[in-house]
Amino acid sequence: MGLAAGSASAVGVLLSDHPSEAGACCRQVCFQGAHASRWLSSVACWRLSSSRWLFRVSSSTRSVRCPVSRASSCCPSWRFREHRRTPPDAAVAPWAAQQPPYLAPHQFSLLPLPELLRWEVLYGLQQVDPWLRIFEPAQVRRMVRDLAETGTLIDGIRDQQMCPRSTVAVLRMLGRVRTAVRAGHAEYTGTAPAQDDVLDLRALGQRSRTPAGIRQPKTVDLRTIRQPWLRGLLRTWTVQQRPGADEFARTLRGVELASRALAQRPGTDDPAGLRYDDVTAVVDAIRTALKRDGEPAGWNYRMSIASHFFALIDYGHRSGAADDLSAAFVRDPALHRIPEQEANEDEIGKAIPEPVIRQLDAHLHLLGLGRARGQRTLAPDDLQLMYRTLYILLRDTGQRPLEVLSLPRDCLETRNDQISLIWNNHKARRHRRRLPITTSTAQAIRTWQERREQLQASLPPTGADYLFPALTHLATRPYLHTSYLGETLRDWVDSIPHLHGEGTDTQGNPLPFDRSLIYAYAFRHSYAQRHADAGTPLDVLRELMDHKSVSTTQRYYTVSLKRKRDAVTKLAAHVVDHHGHPSPSSETAYELRSVAVPYGGCTEPSNVKAAGSSCPIRFQCAGCGFYRPDPSYLPAIEQHINELRADRETAQAMDAAEFVITAFTAQITAYEQVTDRMQRRLAALPVAER
DNA sequence: GACGCTAGGGTCTGAGCACT
DNA sequence: AGTGCTCAGACCCTAGCGTC
Questions:
Q1: The Tyr recombinase domain covers which part of the protein (predicted)?
Q2: Counting CB atoms within 10 angstroms of each CB, which of A57, A68, A129, A586 has the fewest?
């Protein structure tokens, strides 16, 4: 339990009407900041009586010396001694029940509450402790004030009705405490959650917040799952396995989809009657699942939903939680697959085009202004310098945002005049990697490093080892959070007045670039695309990006349709017929009227109509009038000629029939003529176009 | 190469901390 | 008590890698 007002240690005081020793009218426990929960844990032993349930303070709860000076008129001990001056034999209990407790800003008292409510609140606060980052005694004091007229928290009325004058923050605290108390009471009496159709996820240990709009503690109404057996299985699994929030959400999504699909089929309310076809129906529903906004969900997500749903079914079979479940209701790995869709041909990848990056560079002076994150810790100039350095690193190194943010404070290394960036590959768990960088990139880092050294005294010590340290003591990681970078980049990009993309409108004006395509990770794609366009060998780029497999590197950049068209346009102008006569055509006409055959295209109509599978002369292309050899295949054709020569020699050695040798010779001659003509035409071209 | 799993990133949004 | 800022959860997605 953290404490507000940044106090390093504090004292929680529970005033009791049963003082344990003479002269001490308050039972109190000292605790250091975050360890209050240990104290509360020791108080958590409670029992149920016939008419009410209450907590019992454990004997391990220590009574310690009052930290308030006894000379102080605020100290209850001192006040009690003063009280006894008039009736020397006055009892402590009646007196203490009427006394306002002494409270420092970091303390609260439950004394004003009736006894049952006092123990309920205490238990609730103990349970609520792990759900909070910082515990605010002031909120508890307000809650206690507003609860004074209440008898018990276990009541059907809403929080607002219980404390109509409370502020939003107090009602939030009250809601948490009531959730915890209700869950504890229900668990003790054995009424929930094993039988409830409304699951309280927080009471089940999930520390989760809710999607937009829902402010109440998160509950899930299982009554939307129409099949009682499926509802029961999900409830049992949740209660017994206590899944995390994400695991539960995916499983629930799978169950919802399955329930909807099964509801369309007769007899699926009886788990024993389920068949193989029912599994197929469930898989079909997941295979075509949509996101909540109506768009098709991604393949990996749908796969994950299916995986979680069938893990639940397996749990039912395995654990006996679904004893009646038909043995036929299992996934068939061979047939119940969720295939990955083909990538869209027109998709041009996620790289930010270089002209757009140049426009971003031109507006670098705006980065870190406006709503930049971290204004409370850093001066405007320092903030700008930090974000500028982050941008340069993203742009020049192609590293993932988290890798840039978590760079070590001393991340530069110079060997043989080559400067390298030392970084950690979190994703592949390979650390202390080295990436060669340019002098200008290194200079940008050094400039920030020098300024960062001067700032260290004003920064939280947890981030001392990092180049971009956490800026507040609340941060859960020692380095800057990814959302800082993402949100500041978003605000910067939105603040740039004009950002032109590629192409123009009908009036010739440049088209605006879609700003949503600019985000931190997109610079990694740009880095890969930049290297690919510059001709960096794939294996070198793989090393630079620290990928294990080349296929991963290839996924980062794509050959855009435009680049393909450029290539087709250039080559289409040099297509020749089999006599070597130029046979130029528009790229579209050529694509429409031809079909790919070995080493070029075929324009024979019946073969084109059959998509290349119906050659009337059995693919004797070199001698065909419809053959359009493609200059890009020149090296391959020459290799093919060599193979034909080798085959002819083999045939001669085998003393093959004369027509076999003649056929090889004719093919070789035909392909030689094709290459000869193409080479002559290419030689006549300007050097730049070859 | 298809499939499936795990770890973790991008983005949106609300909770709640910190400051006034 | 009001308000702006910070951070973490939800949801969906990508990357990396192992298995078949």
A1: 347-569
A2: A586
In 3-state terms, what secondary structure has residue A425? strand
- Give me the pLDDT at residue A118, please: 85
- Residue pair A242/A204 in contact by the 8 Å Cβ criterion: yes
From the CA of A66 to the C1' of C1: give the distance in Å.
Answer: 33
Selection from A224-238, A613-627, A670-684 with the highest mean pLDDT: A224-238
Range with top average pLDDT, A436-445, A639-648, A679-688: A436-445
Q: Which residues contact A601 (CB under 8 A, 6 or more apart)?
A: A575, A590, A594, A595, A627, A628, A630
**∠ at Cα A590 (A589, A596), nearest 5°?**
140
Distance A379 CA to B1 C1' (A): 54
**Element of type H or E holding A15:** none
- Average pLDDT, stretch A286-314? 69
For A49-74, the three-class secondary structure string (H helix, E strand, C coil) is CCCCEEECCCCCCCCCCCCCCCCCCC
Q: Where are the beta strands (DSSP E) in A610-660?
A: 627-629
Q: What is the pLDDT of residues A453-480, one digit of tens each?
A: 887 777 777 777 788 877 766 565 677 7
Q: A496 exposed, middle or buried (CB, 10 Å; 0-12, 13-18, 19+)?
A: middle
Please state the separation of Cα A463 from the chain's center in Å: 23
**pLDDT band, very low/low/confident/very high, at A41 (cuts 50, 70, 90):** very low
**Closest nucleotide over all strands to A333 (CA to C1'):** B3
pTM for the whole structure: 0.53
CA–C1' span, A320 to B7, in Å? 31
